[in-house]
């Protein structure tokens, strides 16, 4: 399946709300893991997630399997995950996370620094 773009209404909701859940597929490539809530940010019409924990099993599965299930605002569907390597894009994602989560008690510049290499783009599977 080719990944598709998020509908504009969904992107606007994701940019404003903190309601994004992911469940990457397990090693069989078919069975999704447990849906967990993660921070998300919208940059240039795309959705990005990150893991603050270097030992994160969900992030490792997302990078390994490149697919899974996502849920936002009650809608659930198949999605693809692609790790982000571009440093300029990581800067924009960091800025979007800062704008969205700076008031959250768990947010810190250190969290962004530690998780900079654990950013993935998420797209609905088309």
Total helical elements: 4
- State the secondary-structure class: alpha+beta
Please report which band the strand proportion falls in: under 5%, 5-15%, 15-25%, 25-35%, 35-45% or over 45%: 25-35%
Radius of gyration: 13 Å
Largest sheet: 7 strands, antiparallel
Element string (H = helix, E = strand):
HEEEEHEEHHE
End-to-end span in angstroms? 6 Å
Please state how the strands of the largest beta sheet are arranged side by side: 2-1-5-6-7-4-3
Q: Give the total of beta strands.
A: 7
Quaternary organization: single chain
Task: Give a structural overview.
By secondary structure, the protein is an alpha+beta fold. Helix content is 32%, strand content 29%. The chain has four helices and seven strands. It has helices at 8-16, 57-65, 87-101, 109-115; strands at residues 21-24, 36-37, 40-43, 46-50, 67-72, 75-83, 119-124. It has a seven-stranded antiparallel sheet. A hairpin with a 2-residue loop joins strand 5 (67-72) and strand 6 (75-83). It is globular. It starts with 7 loop residues before the first helix and ends with a strand. The mean pLDDT is 92.
What does this entry show, briefly?
The protein is an alpha+beta fold and 126 residues long. The chain has helices at 8-16, 57-65, 87-101, 109-115; strands at residues 21-24, 36-37, 40-43, 46-50, 67-72, 75-83, 119-124.
């Amino acid at each position: 399946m080719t990944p598709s773009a998020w509908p504009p209404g969904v992107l606007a909701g994701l940019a404003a709300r903190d309601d994004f859940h992911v469940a990457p597929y397990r090693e069989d490539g078919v069975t999704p893991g447990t849906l967990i809530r993660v921070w998300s940010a919208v940059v240039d019409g795309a959705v990005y997630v990150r893991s603050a924990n270097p030992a994160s099993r969900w992030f490792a599965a997302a990078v390994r399997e490149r697919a899974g299930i996502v849920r936002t605002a009650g809608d659930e569907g198949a999605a693809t995950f692609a790790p982000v390597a571009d440093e300029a894009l990581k800067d924009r994602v960091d800025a979007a996370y800062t704008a969205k989560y700076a008031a959250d008690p768990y947010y810190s510049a250190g969290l962004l620094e530690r998780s900079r290499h654990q950013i993935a783009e998420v797209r609905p599977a088309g």
